[in-house]
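Problem: given the chain below (286 residues), write out its structure.
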Amino acid sequence: MLDQRWNTFLVLCETMNYTRAAERLCLTQPAVTHHIRYLEQHYGERLFLYEGKRLRLTEAGVRLREFTRSMAYNSGKIEASMAAPAPLTLRVGASKTIGEYVIAPKVEHFLRAQPEAVFSLVVDNTEALLQALEEGRLDFALVEGYFESSRYHTRLCRREGFFGVCPPGHRLAGRKAALDELAGERLILREPGSGTRAILERGLSSVNRSIQDFSGIVTISDFAIIKSLVADGLGISFLYAPVVAEELAQGKLARFELAEVPMSGAFNLVCLKDNLFAANWVDWLV
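Solution.
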């Protein structure tokens, strides 16, 4: 059972406002202040500081937040397991590539093996999923792209090809092209925070280039629309292999590589550090 002072600390981390934290917790503002001061005195560190009128976490506060999030998650799971027998509950997040093109067989396998389970799957971009994980709204997430892995417990699920796509008759089709050849192309890509966009931006950055080098940028969050626009000759894109496998096989799209930037991406299982239940999810890795 998590001490109320830990809960107060986590709510204040989310709201960064003593008044709003007190309202959410149904406490007085002095009570919230007292809880935070107790923790600061206990650890001998300031956890929050004001910069002008804006509250911010200190380095010690950031460290404590990471530990406390794991404690809160583990405490909730233990409380649930010690209560009256109830169906297994599993809350999974998946980034869009994984959620739309990879995870379905795993979900089917789980539901057949656990017919009484209460299961939920959230499909969103990597950034949003990591935030939901930190807030205790997910048990684990399967994500793509780059993220600050030191903040989490992670396991590599698989690696996938990542490459450019264009219409079949395009001058880039089937080639290994230099970046300079792409300067006049319109780039169609996912929104900021997506793993698909992050891997492209990281690859370009490694050779001192950016997406701004393209003649135009179109941002679309839906894979089906991206593929349709590319197939109709309205731009090029960069996507993971599972996303375009069907279109490549049917000849609706063609692939190309970047000569200077060989790219591939990792799909990772991610949960909070010190998660006592992480071993239960190894089956999702195979």
